Amino acid sequence: MTKAAVIQLTRTAAAELGPQGVRVNAVSPGWILTPMVAHYWTGPDGAEDPAAKAAAVARNADRSPLGIVGEPSDVSLCMLYLASPAARFMTGQVLRPNGGVVMA
């Protein structure tokens, strides 16, 4: 429900703020290799298990048609695009850098 709320908020704000020249977009990334997902390979003592990390990365890469997982730079580049003049005609959209996982 939270993602649906963000999508609707993005669309509503874009419609309401568009006449003032404000563009409103959102980024909804897929599985990104960040500390947020480190619980898959980190034990209670904080030690990382390299085999568990490799397995988690492989499992998520297998879900993507590209065969890779996302990195923070992939999300940053989407945000950079939205902040750039190249996105001047884009509003009310949700970019989903996810390696095509939703298609698989």
Question: What does this protein structure show overall?
Answer:
The chain has 104 residues and is mainly alpha-helical. The chain has a single domain, classed as NAD(P)-binding Rossmann-like Domain (Rossmann fold), CATH 3.40.50. Helices cover 39% and strands 4% of the residues. It contains 3 helices and 2 strands. It has helices at 2-17, 50-62, 72-83; strands at residues 26-27, 94-95. It has a two-stranded parallel ribbon. The longest helix has 16 residues, at 2-17. It is elongated. The relative contact order is 0.23. The mean pLDDT is 95.
Describe the structure concisely.
The protein has 104 residues and is mainly alpha-helical. It is 39% helix and 4% strand. The protein has one domain: Rossmann fold, CATH 3.40.50.720.
Oligomer: single chain
The proportion of residues in beta strands is: under 5%
Kindly give the count of domains. Answer: 1
Distance between the termini: 22 Å
- By CATH, the superfamily comes out as NAD(P)-binding Rossmann-like Domain
Question: What is the topological layout?
Answer:
Blueprint: H1 2-17, E1 26-27, H2 50-62, H3 72-83, E2 94-95
Parallel strand pairs: 1-2
